[in-house]
Design goal:
Strand content: under 5%
Number of helices: 6
Number of strands: 0
Number of domains: 1
Mean pLDDT: 86
Largest sheet: none
Structural class: mainly alpha
Order of helices and strands: HHHHHH
Distance between the termini: 45 Å
Low-confidence stretches: none
Length: 119
């Protein structure tokens, strides 16, 4: 009981400060606990929703929210998010894990490259 709460606190801190959402850490943690991939992904969205709402309030108080851009992105995201569960329902856990790993490695490489770019 204490490990998920402690991990949630750490991931919440990292998520609210980085904008990464936290699913990239929550999903592997839940899989490690023995959850099926579909359940891990679905459960991570409950976590992300709660952390996102809390983070939104914190950032809004500081004036760090572009409401128009965020709303437009959300419209597209809401529409696109309906396809995710359908796709996940039709792929194997092994295929998901490989795809997820490639996305994480690609995102990490892109962030590393961007951090080296001269502004």
């Amino acid at each position: 009981m204490i490990v998920p709460v402690a991990l949630g606190m750490i991931i919440g801190f990292l998520s609210s400060g980085s904008g990464l959402g936290g699913g990239f850490l929550v999903v592997p943690f839940l899989i490690q606990l023995g959850k099926e991939v579909k359940v891990a992904v679905g459960t991570s969205f409950l976590f992300i929703l709660m952390v996102a709402i809390s983070s939104l309030f914190g950032h809004a108080k500081l004036g760090n929210v572009d409401w128009k851009a965020g709303s437009l992105l959300a419209i597209g995201g809401i529409i696109g998010a309906q396809a995710g569960p359908l796709i996940l329902e039709n792929i194997s856990d092994q295929s998901f894990k490989r795809f997820f790993a490639v996305v994480l490695i690609g995102t990490g490489a892109w962030l590393f490259y961007q951090s080296r770019a001269v502004s």
